């Protein structure tokens, strides 16, 4: 049977991983695809650079557009990243009638809709399992095994760098800056860490998850986003003593009227399966009807896991090409669902504050919360902490479910009261009703 | 677009769940499938029986074969169970050129090969995601997102009844018989519990997982099988004090030369993600290259989760029908891999025994183990336990990885030595090198 010819754009960590996966078991993959999968062309920035994979047998160029549109390439594998040349090359490949496989979360989150429409118009496929949670199968299951569900929420730990830092902060009690530096030294964080620690990477992935889970157009601009820089060892220790762990969660929820899409550091109850997903591991928790709750767990980044996802997409696209048409990855979302503002978000909250240490303080605060209809689930007061002239205490409370607007209203009133010395930190919680 | 017409065989828990799933969101499912999915016929044993779903709009009969071959049925959904009439009806449906969806693990594990060959010959599909781990997507990911991997092992907690009983034994310290009776009272165990507690159900599921993971013909007769009846509260408590939990694991491993396929009560280290999968939850852990380790977790049984899997298969089969051919579920395995006997199995082991309590006993036992090249990883000795005339002690040890044959040789020699008063219990461990 005639081979399916693959053109690679970029051979960094992910591209090398995917190429190695194709070369590791060529006979098995040929059997599963229906024909041999033959890498024929590759575009790289620097052909001389040392790589974990050999370029032997490949026509090498620095011109990504040339590979994207080469007549002897059947499937284009985009592993350049970002939205510059990658967007141009993917657009050119789709326009030239070629199916594309990519792990580029930024590209799909920012320009997915225009690319899906182009793929629809040209009747080609655009596959991107590797763009979310590395090698963990999650987009495929949402499209296939779980497709009969009405998804209520998708909640993920989808950024390994922040999960590593938060896990280390929990284990060692050291501050963010110190463990960021350590993660950078170990290669778990970039020298410019903003994409990870400020939640951009997780927001891209959440936009993609929400698009598939809710069959709706979603762009990353609709995702509310907070990073982990303001999480302190004090908050982590107090949350632990109240039975919670800190995670950077990406939360997509269908509230019926609107979608909620948010990425932020979050307290997760220890009993929840997401709480024990530590270090560089990722997990995606899906709740839907009729399936109930399912969770997917594994390594969320790295050349091997992401290479597994990219190579898996290549096999499936090849299978569809050989069968004469697209099937597995046909999908411009059918709907435009409205997205709630963060003020409309519903959550429970953790609040840490310093208060005057005298009788009646808790009653004052509870009274204000009651007037705002914010109900308290847990309280922890520690004397002799905080600031001010007289005796002070650290007061931490976790609310039941409420709205962001109510919480902010209550906090403004509490901050203005003389019992409050300082509002130290506030975080959202997950899994507290 | 013309509707895809569905015929149901059996409307018990799973059939009702699948029918309810099709009816819950008809417009969304029609969009995902490409056409409305319309249940038209149903065969039930007793049309008068009360059911959670209405039969309105369905042609009802007691004749499963008639529905399986009805000209106005496009997809046959088999929810009868077992290998009697279910096998006959599925065979008739495939022979009549109809695609079939089933959650019948016994049917696929025992007669999968003949059914796949028939489906291949007739160019129709046979889908069975619901046969393993209820609503948890696992067969789909093995076929699709993970398809570029060489799978090294698949390890599952795939039987909710035994996991519930073992979790309760761990929590309450009560014996098997008592908690089986309680599980029966709560509806988590059948009045004849053998299929679950003796490991048959898990063995069926393991045969199916191994078939897909290793692309090999596998029948349930090739699976070594032990149930959980001989697990005692004493063993559970001792395993816990050594940092392990008891789980009924279904283990399929590719050793290169041969496959290992076994179902048995197993000690799992507390740090392994499978150890914290409790009660009626299921999980399947997959290790492969290049993906590394991934785990799938959720509810493994019940009408809603399994209905999600069956309805998901129906949507996919409908999609393939509308696109003019099979794609998602084409699969008679390509190979026949040899399977290791249990004597050839490689594992670590837990052994509990009563010994004479005097100096030199441990040295005697360690000496015998050393001669059989069995290396000890953990030891726990408790005085004043056991039987015999003089002072006795309970000795528990966990080995490093070895072969079943070596362990048995060493145990026979130990049992014959006068320091050994009784060999109490032996179990295999997972995740100990």
Molecular structure report:
The structure is a homodimer of 433-residue chains. By secondary structure, chain A is α/β, with parallel strands linked by helices. Chain A folds into 3 domains: 4-135 and 303-322, NAD(P)-binding Rossmann-like Domain (Rossmann fold, 3-Layer(aba) Sandwich); 146-299, 2-Layer Sandwich (Dihydrodipicolinate Reductase, domain 2); 343-429, Alpha-Beta Plaits (2-Layer Sandwich), CATH 3.30.70.260. Helix content of chain A is 36%, strand content 26%. The first copy, chain A, has 14 helices and 17 strands. In chain A, the strands form 2 sheets. In chain A, strands 7, 8, 9, 10, 11, 12, 13, 14, 15, 16 and 17 form an 11-stranded mixed sheet that branches. In chain A, a hairpin with a 2-residue loop joins strand 11 (281-289) and strand 12 (292-299). In chain A, helix 4 runs parallel beside helix 5 and helix 7 (160-172) packs across helix 8 (176-185). The longest helix of chain A has 20 residues, at 303-322. Chain A is elongated, with a radius of gyration of 24 Å. The model of chain A has no long low-confidence stretch (mean pLDDT 95). The interface between A and B is large, with 58 and 58 residues. Strand 12 of chain A pairs antiparallel with strand 12 of chain B, so a sheet runs across the interface.
């Amino acid at each position: 049977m005639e081979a399916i010819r693959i053109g690679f754009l970029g051979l960094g960590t992910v591209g090398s991983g995917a190429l190695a996966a194709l070369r590791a078991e060529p006979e098995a993959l040929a059997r599963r695809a229906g024909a041999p999968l033959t890498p024929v062309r590759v575009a790289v920035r620097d052909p001389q650079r040392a790589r974990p994979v050999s370029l032997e047998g490949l026509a090498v160029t620095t011109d990504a557009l040339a590979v994207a549109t080469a007549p002897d390439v059947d499937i284009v594998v985009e592993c350049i990243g970002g939205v510059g040349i990658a967007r141009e090359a993917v657009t050119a490949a789709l326009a030239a009638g070629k199916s594309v496989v990519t792990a580029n979360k930024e590209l799909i989150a920012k320009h997915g809709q225009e690319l899906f429409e182009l793929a629809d118009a040209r009747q080609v496929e655009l596959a991107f399992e590797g763009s979310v949670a590395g090698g963990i199968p999650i987009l495929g299951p949402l499209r296939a095994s779980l497709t009969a569900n009405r998804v209520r929420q998708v909640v993920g730990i989808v950024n390994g760098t922040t999960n590593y830092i938060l896990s280390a902060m929990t284990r060692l009690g050291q501050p963010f800056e110190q463990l960021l530096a350590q993660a950078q030294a170990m290669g778990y964080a970039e020298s410019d860490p903003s994409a990870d620690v400020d939640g951009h990477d997780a927001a891209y992935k959440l936009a993609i998850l929400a698009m598939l889970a809710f069959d709706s157009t979603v762009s990353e601009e609709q995702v509310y986003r907070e990073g982990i820089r303001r999480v302190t060892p004090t908050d982590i220790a107090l949350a632990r003593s109240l039975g919670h762990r800190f995670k950077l969660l990406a939360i997509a929820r269908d509230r019926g009227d609107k979608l909620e899409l948010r990425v932020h550091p979050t307290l997760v109850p220890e009993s929840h399966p997401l709480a024990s997903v530590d270090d560089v591991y990722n997990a995606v928790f899906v709740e839907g009807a009729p399936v109930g709750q399912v969770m997917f767990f594994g390594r969320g980044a790295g050349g091997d896991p992401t290479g597994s996802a990219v190579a898996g997409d290549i096999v499936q696209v090849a299978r569809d090409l050989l069968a004469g048409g697209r099937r597995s990855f046909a999908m411009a979302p059918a709907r435009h669902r409205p997205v709630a503002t963060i003020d409309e978000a519903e959550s429970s909250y953790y609040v840490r504050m310093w208060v005057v240490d005298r009788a009646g303080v808790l009653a004052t605060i509870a009274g204000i919360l009651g007037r705002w209809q914010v109900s308290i689930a847990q309280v922890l007061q520690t004397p002799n902490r905080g600031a001010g002239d007289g005796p002070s205490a650290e007061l931490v409370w976790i609310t039941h479910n409420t709205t962001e607007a109510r919480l902010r209203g209550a906090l403004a009133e509490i901050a203005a009261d003389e019992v409050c010395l300082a509002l130290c930190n506030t975080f959202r919680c997950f899994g507290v009703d």
